[in-house]
């Protein structure tokens, strides 16, 4: 309690000083172009926060674990800020995009997709889809575009899991074509005129929704004729109820499915592509992963036909391979948020009148024509803050100034030889203590009188202590309370004043640290959580450019340091589903196939949304068993 109280005072003093008196400077230079935060770090220093302009919006990029965690988990100050167009959200109430509706939607979908039972029911069929697709790819006489094929497999898996395994392959192929056209228009200028990609995407969305509605209609008919017919995840979501026993409308469920396709196809397809490429570029990692899979297969009962959830949970090393892939090739270039209010990052705690005291005192110091004794002034500020917080904000400034003089004389005698004779410091301190106690008693008397006349008058911390009772329901005498206050003054003034002095001096001597002190973000500004910068931070991940699945042995990153699926209320509901699909794909691939890239080490596209092989990874799939 005492440490928190003292830290609070130091934070207010230093924070107000930094904000009010010019130490904090924003980095100079152009801010109109989106730049790699790693390059920004080299240019501006490791501030962890940068300003840019993106999608014609002033934007803040955050790339330190602490700031990322703050932005993603503080729902009071930040909301979803994705620049998604009506191509995706048309018909979705704004409340579902952010606010209580979004929380309800997130809760329903998360509960539906994280339960083991629904997921385990789909493992066999997912394995069958992957096996058949890889077998078909291996028979191709010409090289395939591996990234495209992975996206096709991911799309079919997701659609089949959601809509059910009775869905016709030709229908899924048609929906995949519609979805690809829709996805191509997501990041285009919204010009809805024939010949433009956006217009094509609008038409594709209408067609895709119509196709999904057709499948759902067939499912309802099938369910009426056969109540025991197999269900898909979309049925689980449709039947899920929130705390008010309300279900989602089918219109919203279709939009949810489109959102899952955008996130899921890209996440699963991209991660499976990069994981396969990394494994084949690192033979020792591939060998270790393959050995793990073979051990799992050897333990399998002869009567068992395919993978089980229990076996997938045994794939510890493969899970590390996936995590390392997601670290190296984060699925999106940033997570978008938007400031709901004028807000601050790296904020200091502020308590109204305390901030006012500090601000006024610093303003007065800045007007001095002669140099001040900074340490003395910090002690004065700390004393006034403590006395005001304890005795109440109605305490007269002249009374506090007099008490500060008495306290200074008292403190000067604390470490002197106790010679109580006039002329000695100890004697002066004894007299100062008596005077200080008398002054405090006077203030407490005035407070009692004020309380009688106005029961709603503001109280101080000393009133809280006075009303507190111990386990025997006894209260402290005023004499003891005054002694407690003197002890707080001795500890608090010195601790707060000294710490504020040194902290300010250190900040002044270390400008790069000072830049982190506090940043104001206006309402409506975009805030981009740049996970790739966090994932490449050497202090968290030594040798970050190396692909090292073994780094995850017994390693649990601190909160905000590993964000492939976001954090807080915006964590991707399908994170577990994505890792499940990737695990099944890699299990099938590394045991039975090898990848022969035509252009190993080819270029990478990072925009418009994520790191993709620029050439789509032309390769041959060779069957080895």
UniProtKB/TrEMBL annotation:
Keyword Ubl conjugation carried by entry: no
Entry-linked InterPro entries: Cyt_P450, Cyt_P450_E_grp-I, Cyt_P450_sf
One term under GO cellular component: endoplasmic reticulum
Top-rank taxon: Eukaryota
Entry's family note: Belongs to the cytochrome P450 family.
Transmembrane region(s): 6-24
Keywords on record: Heme, Iron, Membrane, Metal-binding, Transmembrane, Transmembrane helix
GO molecular function: ent-kaurenoic acid monooxygenase activity; heme binding; iron ion binding
Sequence positions that bind heme: 572
Name of the protein this chain belongs to: Cytochrome P450
Cofactor: heme
GO biological process: brassinosteroid biosynthetic process; brassinosteroid homeostasis; sterol metabolic process
């Amino acid at each position: 309690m005492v440490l928190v109280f003292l830290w609070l005072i130091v934070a207010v003093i230093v924070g107000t000083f930094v904000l009010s008196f010019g130490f904090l400077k924003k980095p100079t230079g152009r801010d109109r172009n989106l730049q790699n935060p790693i390059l920004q770090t080299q240019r501006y220093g490791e501030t962890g926060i940068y300003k840019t302009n993106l999608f014609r919006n002033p934007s803040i990029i955050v790339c330190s674990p602490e700031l990322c965690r703050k932005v993603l988990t503080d729902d009071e100050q930040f909301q979803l800020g994705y620049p998604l167009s009506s191509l995706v959200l048309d018909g979705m109430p704004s409340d579902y995009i952010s606010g209580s509706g979004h929380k309800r939607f997130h809760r329903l979908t998360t509960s539906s997709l994280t339960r083991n039972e629904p997921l385990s029911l789909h493992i066999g069929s997912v394995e069958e889809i992957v096996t058949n697709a890889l077998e078909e790819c291996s028979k191709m006489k010409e090289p395939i575009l591996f990234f495209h094929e992975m996206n096709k497999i991911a799309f079919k898996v997701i659609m089949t899991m959601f809509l059910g395994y009775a869905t016709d392959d030709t229908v899924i192929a048609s929906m995949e074509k519609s979805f690809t056209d829709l996805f191509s228009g997501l990041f285009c200028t919204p010009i809805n005129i024939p010949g433009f990609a956006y217009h094509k995407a609008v038409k594709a969305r209408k067609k895709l929704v119509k196709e999904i509605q057709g499948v759902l209609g067939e499912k309802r008919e099938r369910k009426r004729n056969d109540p025991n017919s197999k269900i898909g995840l979309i049925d689980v979501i449709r039947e899920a109820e929130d705390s008010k026993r309300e279900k989602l409308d089918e219109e919203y469920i279709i939009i949810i499915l489109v959102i899952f396709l955008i996130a899921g196809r890209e996440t699963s397809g991209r991660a499976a592509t990069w994981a396969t490429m990394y494994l084949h570029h690192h033979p020792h990692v591939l060998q270790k992963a393959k050995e793990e899979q073979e051990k799992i297969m050897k333990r399998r009962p002869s009567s068992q036909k395919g993978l089980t959830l229990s076996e997938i949970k045994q794939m510890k090393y493969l899970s590390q391979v996936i995590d390392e892939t997601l670290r190296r090739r984060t699925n999106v270039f940033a997570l978008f948020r938007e400031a709901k209010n004028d807000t601050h990052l790296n904020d200091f705690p502020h308590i109204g009148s305390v901030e006012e005291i500090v601000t006024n005192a610093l303003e007065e110091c800045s007007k001095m024509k002669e140099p001040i004794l900074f340490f003395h002034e910090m002690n004065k500020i700390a004393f006034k803050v403590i006395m005001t917080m304890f005795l109440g904000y109605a305490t007269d400034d002249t009374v506090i100034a007099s008490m500060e003089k008495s306290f200074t004389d008292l403190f000067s005698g604390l470490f002197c030889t106790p010679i109580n004779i006039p002329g000695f410091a100890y004697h002066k301190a004894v007299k100062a203590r008596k005077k200080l106690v008398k002054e405090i008693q006077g203030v407490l008397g005035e407070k009692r009188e004020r309380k009688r006349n106005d029961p709603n008058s503001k109280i101080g911390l000393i009133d809280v202590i006075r009303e507190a009772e111990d386990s025997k329901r006894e209260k402290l005498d005023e004499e003891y309370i005054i002694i407690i206050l003197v002890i707080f003054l001795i500890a608090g003034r010195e601790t707060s004043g000294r710490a504020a002095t040194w902290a300010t001096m250190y900040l002044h001597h270390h400008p790069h640290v000072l830049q982190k002190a506090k940043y104001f973000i206006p309402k409506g500004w975009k805030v981009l959580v740049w996970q790739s910068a966090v994932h490449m931070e050497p202090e968290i991940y030594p040798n970050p450019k190396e692909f090292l699945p073994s780094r995850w042995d017994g390693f649990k990153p601190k909160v905000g340091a590993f964000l492939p699926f976001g954090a807080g209320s915006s964590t991707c509901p399908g994170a577990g589903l994505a890792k499940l699909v990737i695990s099944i794909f890699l299990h099938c691939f590394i045991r039975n196939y090898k990848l022969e890239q035509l252009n190993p080490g080819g270029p990478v596209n990072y925009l418009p949304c994520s790191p993709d092989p620029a050439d789509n990874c032309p390769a041959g799939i060779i069957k080895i068993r």
